[in-house]
Automatic annotation (TrEMBL), chains A, B:
A single Gene Ontology CC term: cytoplasm
Described function: Part of the phosphoribosylformylglycinamidine synthase complex involved in the purines biosynthetic pathway. Catalyzes the ATP-dependent conversion of formylglycinamide ribonucleotide (FGAR) and glutamine to yield formylglycinamidine ribonucleotide (FGAM) and glutamate. The FGAM synthase complex is composed of three subunits. PurQ produces an ammonia molecule by converting glutamine to glutamate. PurL transfers the ammonia molecule to FGAR to form FGAM in an ATP-dependent manner.
Enzyme class: ligase
Position of the signal peptide: none
Family indicated by similarity: Belongs to the PurS family.
Subunit structure: Part of the FGAM synthase complex composed of 1 PurL, 1 PurQ and 2 PurS subunits.
Pfam families associated with the record: PurS
Keyword match Ligase: yes
InterPro entries associated with the record: PurS, PurS-like_sf
One function term, GO molecular function aspect: phosphoribosylformylglycinamidine synthase activity
Record-given protein name: Phosphoribosylformylglycinamidine synthase subunit PurS
Length: 92, 92
C-alpha cells in the first residue's frame, strides 16, 4: 500500500473566485498581511501495490485525463511518506 | 513574501462521497489497483511578510476558525519553498 497525493490548482493566469472570496473575507475576520489566496483540490490515493514508476505513470495519466482539467488547471503528483499523515492542526 | 499551504481533508472516520465517486469511476476508465480515494481542499496563501512563527500561528488560527470545519475536517499547515511550485504534471 502506498499513498500518492495529487494537488490540482487553477493555472496562475486563471481567475480564482473561490480564492478571492477567501482573501476578501480574511481582513473582516481580523487576519491581515495576506497578499493572495488560491484554492484548489487535493486527492489522496491509496494504491494497492507499491508506488513504483509504472504506478506513478498511471496516476499521472489519471490526473491528466480525469482529475484535472489541464486547459485551466495544473497538477502535481507525489508519493507521501506514511509518517507524513499527521493529525489535526499539525505544522509540517 | 512567503507561501504557506493549508491542506484540509475530511477526518478518516467521516464518509467522503466525492472521493468515493472518483474511486468508483476509475475502473470504468481503465485505472485499476486503487484501494481508496479521499478528496480535500488545498489553499495556497501568499503572506506579505516572512513565514515566521508568529505568522504561522496566525495562519493556523485562520485555518482552524475559517478554512476548515474541525468537527469533520483535519488540516495541516506548511511553508512551501519557492522551488516547490513546479509546473504542470511534474512529479515531486
Amino acid at each position: 500500500m502506498a499513498r500518492v497525493v495529487i494537488d490540482v490548482m487553477l493555472k496562475p493566469e486563471i481567475l480564482d473566485p473561490q480564492g478571492q472570496a477567501v482573501q476578501r473575507a480574511l481582513p473582516r475576520l481580523g487576519f491581515d498581511g495576506v497578499a493572495d489566496v488560491r484554492q484548489g483540490k487535493r486527492f489522496e490515493i491509496e494504491l494497492e501495490g507499491p508506488a513504483d514508476e509504472a504506478a506513478l505513470a498511471r496516476v499521472r495519466e489519471m490526473a491528466e485525463t480525469f482529475l484535472a482539467n489541464t486547459v485551466i488547471e495544473d497538477f502535481t503528483v507525489r508519493v507521501e511518506e506514511p509518517a507524513d499523515t499527521a493529525g489535526s492542526g499539525s505544522s509540517r
